[in-house]
Sequence to fold (436 residues):
Amino acid sequence: MNVLPKLLYLFQNLPVMRNNKLFQEWQKEITKFTWKGKKPRINYTIMTDEKRRGGFGLPNLKLYYESCGLVWVKDWATLEKNNILALESFDLRRGWHSYLWYSKRMIEKNFGNHFIRSSLIKIWEKYKERIYRKTPLWISPLEANQKKFLGWIKWPKYKEILRKKDGQYQLRSQEEIKQKYDKISWFQYAQMKEQFGKDKILGFNEIDNFWDVLMQNDKKEITRVYKKLLEWSTEIEYVKSCATKWARNIGRSIMMSEWETIWIIKQRYTYASDLQENWLKMFHRWHITPKKLAMMYKNTDNKCWKCKKQEGSYFHIWWTCPETKVYWKAIHEELQKILHKSFPMKPEFYLLGLTEEIMKVNSNEDKIFTYATTAARMIFAKYWKLRDIPTKQHWLEKLDEIYDMDKLTYLMRVNRGKAIKPTNWEKFEEYKEKLK
Ligand SMILES: [Zn+2]
Fold:
């Protein structure tokens, strides 16, 4: 997407989007473009999710905007870029950390009068509690409590002034702190002590999270922040909708790790985009069913297009319909012949590629199985709205096409000096010999 770098430039330099309206409009335009003006079939949040989690990787502009904002806020937290910080804080009465952690924006209205500061702090406050439930160790209690800017270049942070004894945090002595910060007066030490007394009630965040890592890094890592925000924004969505429907259909719960196996490992087999597309469509239950159509339009028959008897739900057409069963049985038999194995005929093997240990297939056989079942689904999808079901012959032609393409891709990669492990097609070739 070519627009993204241009917008990122804008977001980084002028992070002042006051409300959601513009993002909603952009999102509407993108959706219109993606779906060619038709009604979207997949929810926008899922479209934006990462490919390794079954999404489509469509950029979420609002999250990019927020990521740029957070990368800016990072400088307020690290307190290292003194020149810039002095410029941005010229009219502030307290230190940065008082606004970032101790919510002083509510009392000191001055903070929000500055339009960039006001936008940025809102982004930070939106995510703050998600990032830290306890006081971060990068907080400097002294910086937060300064009434007028002292102009210090280095501020003592909790990480440096605390010590852990018997599992409890203690404030180091004034002498100890003075070894590194010789300007600390008794009054400032008392200020730190007072703040520490309050903060230890909530406790301190001990394990470094992504924000701590970000702060230790010099670079502007918009992508890293974006990925995190994306993960949070999609976490409820992707477990919910399609995955639970599939679990209901196959009659058992599907572990998250199983989904991840398909998203991460199997996507690597299916580098060809139409194979990947089929897989994504299956997972997201893309194909429109008579059941859905009947809900959308009155006087539309909800019966299955194949058997014309039962209600045409997604799972019925793809699996339980007696007509469809004939197709899958044929493929199931042939695949057992090809692989010299016998295994049960389960919908999750054929529709989702969720292979199991009981199949006793090695990684190469798993790859062939994935190709073969994907071919079967692609052919079946071509007959989606038809009364007929495809034949075994149709399927074998498609599999042959994938076979050729796999070989060709291998040769091209080798030619470019990128050696990859070739697929071992011997068993399939043997099978084809016998058919002749
Ligand atoms: Zn049917």
